[in-house]
Amino acid sequence: MHFKPKTAKEIYDRLLELMRRRMRRYVQKNMRPCPMNCTKAVLDRDNVVVGCAGCGSHNIDRCRRAENFVSVSSKDDLVTEWKNRFRNPELVLREHQGEAALLWTLGIWDNYEEFIKKQFGPPDAK
């Protein structure tokens, strides 16, 4: 077998693609209509979602009436939340192993904070 190594540019582009994909999925998951993401969620004594007062659903994963759904967070807030979570190197190692491996391969992991500032800018105050 013959392997052709990827260039650093190809690896870097793949890293950015993975990061964008993860962010998009995070936003989609937290914006989908369901009682877990709705401001009208019904909570029990332990602040655990048990249903929704807006659509009458008792299934925390399904919204009965998407037209009554009111998202807990805006899209911009979720993007900022994801970026702030990605700033934490321990969380990246635990939840984003693919990106962490590419960061290590490119030698970026040693200067992680610098890379994050370049990609996301300074941290948002929240």
Spatial sequence of strands, sheet with the most strands: 1-2
Main beta-sheet strand count, sense and barrel state:
2 strands, antiparallel
How many helices? The count is 5
Number of strands: 2
Secondary-structure-based class equals mainly alpha
Ends apart, CA distance between termini? 51 Å
| Strand content bin | 5-15%
TL;DR of this structure?
The chain is mainly α and 126 residues long. 48% of the residues lie in helices and 6% in strands.
Structure characteristics:
126 residues, elongated, 2 strands, 6% strand, 2 domains
Would you give an account of this structure?
This protein is mainly α. The protein has two domains: 1-31 and 73-126, no CATH class; 34-68, no CATH class. The protein has five helices and two strands; from the N terminus they run αββαααα. α1 crosses α2 (75-86). The radius of gyration is 19 Å and the shape is elongated. It starts with 7 loop residues before the first helix and ends in a 6-residue tail after the last helix.
